[in-house]
Amino acid sequence: MYGKAFAPEYQGALTTLSVNSSLVDVLATGTEQLREAERAGRRDEAARCGLAVAEAHRRLGQVRDADRAWKASYRAAREAGDTAAMAWALWSGGTLARQRGAFPLAWRLLGLAAELGELGGDVVVRGYSLAGLAETGRIQGDYEAVGRLHEQLLAEARRRGEARHTVWALEGIAQMHRNTGSYDTAYAMFEEAAEIAARADDRRGHAWALRGLADIVSVRDGDTGRALELLSEAETTCRAMNLTSALAYNHKMRGNVFYRAGRYAEARELYELALGKFRTMGEPRGEALSRLGLAKSLARLGRDSTETAAELADLARTLEGSGLRHAREMVARAREEFGLAAAEAVR
């Protein structure tokens, strides 16, 4: 049995906040409590409140503010001699680094966070940090390296009855199955994640699971209507909780659904919308995927093939050193889709 989902990153005076609290509210409350802790000279409390501030900024797509906040939280924790709080700050910093596409930094910070979590006796931050490492590898497309870690973390989360972490692990493994063509397995895991998240009142996890289900329903079944219904349900949650990044990925997925259905003009609009959001928040992975979708949509709408070839070549160069293996493969497939791979070979 799984208990109600909770947010361990909301600590100190902020433990009363719900996992479903609006990020705008989290930021306001966290900032207020952080200032009170600083005025009182309570470095330990400042570190804990600062963590929530950093996470709210990060999830709202406010990268620079998030970067300043996690570093300030780490400094406060170090001054207080609070090893576990130092680990949480590093976890936040590592997660931000991954979001920004700085994968080597993400590996380093999350690895340090896992070590300090173990040293400080905080099994939760250690687990979150290991999960962060697993997700970093998954996003980079290194499924063989992190697949086993995902499975291990899923087993641990199930054993402890941690709904939120179980949902995260299920979604990560499901995404790897989806990307390797095992659609039925992926669907079953996204479905289980959605059910657990719903029962545990984990609205963020539920929204991500719905997005995964919409993707499978679209690509496997060709059921455009059902896919759009699932994405609309997820979007309601994203807007209610101010989940900026998740909303942008929702727009991008809606573009994918329209593209597969041959509704290229609608796909173009959604990709343009997502691209603008990703650029604003400085999220290169989402930006690259949106650029790719937009290039394909414009090609279907009659864009000159030389322009499409140039766009895809530029995107390939951008991704070359990024470590995003799956995204690079998608660009290669797009070149094949439009007969550009052969043209490149001829030149």
Topology:
Blueprint: H1 23-39, H2 43-59, H3 63-80, H4 83-99, H5 103-119, H6 123-139, H7 143-160, H8 163-179, H9 183-200, H10 203-221, H11 224-240, H12 244-260, H13 264-281, H14 284-300, H15 305-320, H16 325-337, H17 340-346
Would you kindly provide a written description of the structure presented here, covering whatever features stand out?
This protein has helices at 23-39, 43-59, 63-80, 83-99, 103-119, 123-139, 143-160, 163-179, 183-200, 203-221, 224-240, 244-260, 264-281, 284-300, 305-320, 325-337, 340-346. By secondary structure, the protein is mostly helical. The model has no long low-confidence stretch (mean pLDDT 92).
